[in-house]
Design brief:
By secondary structure, the protein is α/β, with parallel strands linked by helices. Helices cover about 25% and strands about 25% of the residues. It is built from 17 helices and 29 strands. Helix 9 packs across helix 10 and helix 11 crosses helix 16. The radius of gyration is 25 Å and the shape is elongated.
Amino acid sequence: MISEPQDLNDPDLRDRAVAAARGDAPFDRLIRGATLADMATGELRPADIGLVGPLIASVHPTGQRDDATEIIDATGLIAVPGLIDTHMHVESSMVTPETYAGAVLPRGVTTIVWDPHEFGNVAGLAGVDYALTSAARSALRILPLAPSCVPSAPGYESTGADFGPEVIASLLDRPGIHGLAELMDMRAVTSRAERMRGIVQAGLHSGKLVCGHARSLTGPELQAYVAAGISSDHEITSADDLLEKIRAGLSIELRGSHPYLLPGFAKALQSLPQMPPTVSFCSDDVFPDDLLETGAVDEMLRRMIAHGLDPMRALQAATLNAAIRLDRQDLGLIGPGKRADIVLLDDLVSFHVRHVLRDGAPVEAIGTGSRFPDAFLETCALPAVLAEDFVLRADGATVRLATISRPRFTEWGDVTADIVDGAVIPPDGTTMIAVINRHGGDPAPKLGFLQGWGEWDGAFATTVSHDSHNLTVFGKRPEDMAAAANAVIAARGGMAVARGGKSVAVLPLPVAGLVSDAPLPEVAAALAALRVAMDEVVEWDPPYLTFKALVGATLACNAGPHQTDLGIADSHAGILLASPILSEGSG
């Protein structure tokens, strides 16, 4: 069972800790010879650390005590508090919570704040229940939130559930829920739409965290979003955006999932007179190959330091600032009376971890056996598709099509296409996108066209498609798109690449169509192979046209057009086109 702050207040535990601190009783464990990274003062200073159960009893000068049941020799090592990831989605790593815990705990990450809205959008309340059950039995401290946006853009997409204000209020009443997760329907927040107003007010009434998603908001719209009661944001798009949101009083969960932005963030933070206490670090979305190779929020720490942020400032963000954000007075510092989440490092640049203690006990080998509801294996029960399903039909000789232009920061575009035998021929410079409802609605693909998404030779299909997670297919030729889609359907969810009308790479993700119960190295290798196959399909153009952009092409809550199972949706502009056809011509 996950420890909560009140477990430290057991009177017998406090009696033992006080006695050990006075020297009237031995410590259970003594970390001796370390250099302490003091997050309160910014000092690096020699210190020994005495532990009693999960509690730090004493932090005292080196060599004063040697009375302990166990002594950990930390000579030459740096002691830092356990890292806290303030915003993330386990599902994005495509492995189960048990496997995720086994990956990050040895890296010094002892606490994560999990928004399970991916599971929520697919499996509804069963997805949240699964997150709570996983948290309760995990060796990692997992703090689940109540997903606020199921769906992320009501009326513009179909998902597996609908969490209105009453559902949200009931979730927030659960003791295992630590707050209201990112409020993604930004325009509904600032317009005070009835549904979203009720959801926000349920969060405020709960007295728990109310978390944000303020992508592209600035000026009056940003001020209005914060005035509604939202307290955080992780959707930072530039150094100027970062500073504006810090100045607006938001708690910033600075994420590592967009590394091209980090140099600017580091420079901006280092230029300030002090590290803002409202800036913490998060991983948000980490794919399994990246998780295996470089880690999660620990990699964010390394990168920010490499880009010039003072190591102690970076550590402050990942520990003390995060604890303050979570209102966890037991975390974020190594001091008497605090929780003994302690990481011993070689240095503050590589962040190479030698030892991790969670609740005062060394982290040993972590079992990764997975348990999940059987129903999670049946969320992609779709019929096979045909190449004909990916052909847009129209009359006449030509047609004018609406397009989704540019990846990530999408814009409306239009293009003229020829019609041959009633079939629209995708013009040069366009890529087809199709979304197939897998949540019990009409499974007929909804077709759209992308511009500026590269020249494709093949197709890609995925059920990891934020945040509705319908089956989404990209490609130039219908036979490739059908092959990729059918490979995913046969795998009961996942990702697939097809060329020449045949599947050439598959990553099965049968658990809710989002994750695998296979070991992390196996999942990471399969995704790496799929990425290699995709390199033959399209030439990437970073930082916007990347593999990760494909899983966000359906994110209808963000500004600009996005393809969904209902058509081309622009929730900010209030537009939903059931068909991309704007007009037909006779030629």
